[in-house]
Structures are given as structure tokens and as C-alpha cells.
Amino acid sequence: MTETTTLADLPLREDLRGEHPYGAPQLHVPVVLNVNENPYPVAPEVVADIAAAVAEAATGLNRYPDREFLDLRADLAAFLRTESGADLAPEQVWAANGSNEVMLHVLQAFGGPGRTALSFAPTYSMYPEYARDTLTTWVTGRREDDFTVDVDHAREQVRLHRPSVVLLTSPNNPTGTALPLETVEAVLQAAGNAVVVVDEAYGEFRRAGTPSALELLPRYGNLAVSRTMSKAFSLAGARVGYLAASRAFVDALRIVRLPYHLSAVTQATARAALKHSAALLSTVDELRTRRDETVQWLRGSGFDVAESDANFVLFGRFEDRHAVWQGLLDRGVLIRETGPAGWLRVTVGTADEMQKFRSALQEVVDEK
Asked: Would the pTM count as exceeding 0.90?
């Protein structure tokens, strides 16, 4: 059958015409450092336990999964207690198919027509898409030259736009910048009854002494802290994200979630992985060290580099960043062309991958 129908023939929402699906390039090259994955695969013994848990779950796949998944939520609360000292009940934790779906639930519950979501650019490029998909007005304040958020500017943006949702990212993507708790608390105090979400997708990679916004949860019922198992846990393929907040906040997300949104297989995978959290997170210190070495090398080579508490580094500045990106790709190294004009972002990979990145970048620069 010959396909003749185009998008122009369909009643697509007018605000979606001309839009393209989100996604970084998926290319088969020797060194892939563009989507902030953990470069280390899951250990065989953990794979075996996950496989056994999934096999057990498969015996009941004729039934719908546990739609409240309180056992998984209890396991996530226990992990946060160990990792950050957060004292949470299972009912204060929510999970979904990646932190993307968690954040979409937030915008579904608290955004919508006539409401506004506020963040500070540059930041995660999916945020405006969550807003678009929920018919929420999207506005951004600015970040400073070092990509920090000025407290007075943040307060002024909240006063000016009166958002129902404020999205803060710490460490920020694509810059790697962490937010001081004083900044988060200033936004919370200015926000009134608006909800404030601190996206800590890269929180496990933060440097020693960098706090988590989880510390503020006991004092603010309108605060939520989002995390993911995609990065530090090496489980990007499992699609498990989660959020910690007050019971009332979580109950709001329960209203908008699709029925049985978290499959029995996903729940089994996540619970089995959490039993091995220490092993799965054992590469974090090594990746932190390699990140800091990458920052030092880039600065020593004359590049501008943003401070990073994540597993990636934003660097520049290039008159033609696409040419640099292409030059690296031509040498088998894929990084990300994202962030402010003139900057590029590289994920921290294995020692061998980072050496290949450095060699390729030096060759590209030497050719200019």
C-alpha cells in the first residue's frame, strides 16, 4: 500500500505543526558521549537477580500490575534515607516511566490552560515540551554568565509571572550547575502556594558538600524533588524515575496518572536493582573523579568550562560549534550540540573513551 497521507492532512493541533520529536542523535559510533548515560553496564550478578525478578513477575502478566506499587515506593524511600538522610514514608514517593513521565504528571496536575510554568534558561530542553503538551504557558528567567541563578532575579520572575509551577534543576542540564539550598528556599518563599520542583536527575554525582533539596522537604509541602535511576544506577533502559514530596503533592499526581502506568516488569526491575544500589552506584566516585579531570584538562587547553556537579561537562566557546561537533563525529566521537550558542556538552565516559575524546578534540582544534 502506498502511503499518501501527510501530517498536513490530519487535524493535528495547530501549536504542534512544524514541531519535531525530542531526541539526541542515535548514531553507531565507537565513542558515544552525548546523552549522559553511565558508561558501565550492569554487573552480571545484578543482571541475574533482575532477570529472576522479571521471570517471577512474568508468571502474573495476565493480571494488571499493582497500580499503587507501595513496595517499590518503600524501597525508593529506603534508598533516599541511605543516600541523603531523607526520612520519607512510602506515600511520599511517586514513580513513573522515567523522570520525564514524573515531570509530565506534575504539569498535568498543576499546569494547564491559563497557568504558567517558570524556569531559568539555559536548562533542560524537555521542560517547554511538558508545558506545551499540557497547554501550560512556558516562561523563563535568565541564568548568570556562570549559569547560577540570581536570587533577586528569581524572586522578581516569580512576582512578575505568578507561576503555578517552578522548575529548578540541580545539577542543571546542560550546564552541570548545582543550586545552593538558599536559592531554592528563596524561590519557595516567593512562590506562595505554587509548586516548586527541584530536578535532581544527576544528584548522585554532586560533589562532596553539595546538599540535596531533600533536606527542605519537611518544611515545604509544595516542594518536590525528582530523581531517576537512568544515570547513576546505569538503568537508562529500564525507564524508572521518581519523586519525593508531601503526601498531598503525591496524591495530586495519582489523580492524573494513567491506570496501571508502571508495568509489573518495570516494578520488578526497579526493586531488584535497588537491592544492589551499593554495587550499581560503585562507579559514581570514579566518574566524579574523571569529570573533574576532564574539567581540568579542558581549562588547561584554553576552553571555557562550566562548573559541574553532574556526569557531564559543558565547554566552549566556539565560533562554529557544529563544525567542532562534526569534526569529533568524523573521528568516531559523538557528543551533544546543546546549550547556549558556542558551547558543547560531553558525557563522562570510561578512561579509554575520555582519552579518545581528548585526542579527537585536540585534532579538531589543531585543524582550525
From this structure: yes
